[in-house]
Automatic annotation (TrEMBL):
Designated name of the protein: G-protein coupled receptors family 1 profile domain-containing protein
Superkingdom to which the source organism belongs: Eukaryota
GO CC, alphabetical: membrane
A Pfam entry, by short name: 7tm_1
Membrane topology term: Multi-pass membrane protein
Localisation per UniProt entry: Membrane
Assigned keywords, A-Z: G-protein coupled receptor, Membrane, Receptor, Transducer, Transmembrane, Transmembrane helix
Transmembrane segments: 20-44, 56-77
SUPFAM superfamilies associated with the record: Family A G protein-coupled receptor-like
Molecular function, one GO term: G protein-coupled receptor activity
Keyword Transmembrane in annotation: yes
Organism expressing this protein natively: Alosa alosa
Length: 98
């Protein structure tokens, strides 16, 4: 029997179906967030009547949430599907800066 090389990042003994379930939920929430926030941004940019001071707060939240979904969903989905952190030390440092 061949032993696997130890991963440089610690892993937790979690059943495979849990990783795939979490990955599917992260993917669904991320895609829903991208589409929903895009629609809010699109409606705001097309309709001048929506450009009120109160709605500026909403559009700010929509933009930041859109960017979070865009940058974080692929990373966490991929990590969950591989059942471990695959982006190495550089990925860890890069995510700390986001």
């Amino acid at each position: 029997m061949v032993e696997e090389a130890p991963h440089p990042f610690p892993t937790v003994d979690v059943p495979d179906h849990a990783h795939y379930t979490i990955g599917a939920v992260i993917g669904a929430v991320g895609i829903t967030g991208l589409v929903g926030n895009f629609l809010v941004i699109y409606a705001f940019s097309r309709s001048r009547t929506l450009r009120t001071p109160a709605n500026m707060f909403i559009i700010n939240l929509a933009i930041t949430d859109f960017l979070m979904c865009l940058t974080q969903t692929p990373i966490f989905f991929t990590t969950s599907m591989h059942k471990r952190w695959i982006f190495g030390e550089k990925g860890t440092v890069s995510l700390q800066k986001i």
